[in-house]
Amino acid sequence: MSPEVVDDRALAGELAAAAGRLLLEVRSGSGLAGKELGDAGDLRSNDFLLARLAADRPGDLVLSEESADDKRRLAASRVWIVDPLDGTREYRAPGHSDWAVHVALWSAGELIAGAVALPALEVTYVDDGIPIPVTAGLLPSPDDDRPRVVVSGSRPPVFSDAVAEAVGGVLTPLGSAGAKAMAVVRGEAAAYVHAGGQYEWDSAAPVAVARAHGLWCGRIDGSPLVYNNDDTYLPDLIICRPELVDTIVGVTRAHA
């Protein structure tokens, strides 16, 4: 592995973790609540990430949820895809840990670095495949040993029940896309399925990390996830243990 890739991975992890700490400061010390808190967190985290990337990787382009889309990225060789605060609703809700910061790097058609910070749990996952001990759970302790399938609490796919039944599991709602993906990385869930609409920044970093940990990532019709497109809408996603791919895609493909 080249030193450049190692450096990019280290930078992704550093930036995600630092932005997460900044968000915790805003959450605890700003005196804001509700929409004002979410807006302030989005802005502060985005400003921080853009400034650091401009300083540390001045030749790269950035695609961020919170910034205007610079179409020069379509001809660029390296594009950072970031979500400064994934799970704004959960961030605004006291006591929630299911929100995240996403930092990923795309180059030559591939995601080559990625990091997902779960600031409320003080942990950052990087696409190095190295397990991180799980100290606090994203999900409540299970009532039984059935595999859990995490889904959006507000926009669960219409096929959610069918997927859970097919794998002999139970549906579990959770907040941000990053939190749901990391629940699978952490071994708390067997799969994450989504079809309620997303954009590239929602899944790029989680997918980079999940793949590095041996998980399968793709669309609900079984096709690959492709990033740095002109249209950034990437509405559906599966992240799951490899042995469940055929079963889950067999269910979801009919709804693709």
From TrEMBL:
The keyword Metal-binding applies. InterPro entries: CysQ/Inositol_MonoPase (IPR050725), Inositol_monoP_metal-BS (IPR020583), Inositol_monophosphatase-like (IPR000760). It comes from the Bacteria. Keywords: Magnesium, Metal-binding. It catalyses: adenosine 3',5'-bisphosphate + H2O = AMP + phosphate. PANTHER family: 3'(2'),5'-BISPHOSPHATE NUCLEOTIDASE 1. This is 3'(2'),5-bisphosphonucleoside 3'(2')-phosphohydrolase. It comes from Gordonia pseudamarae.
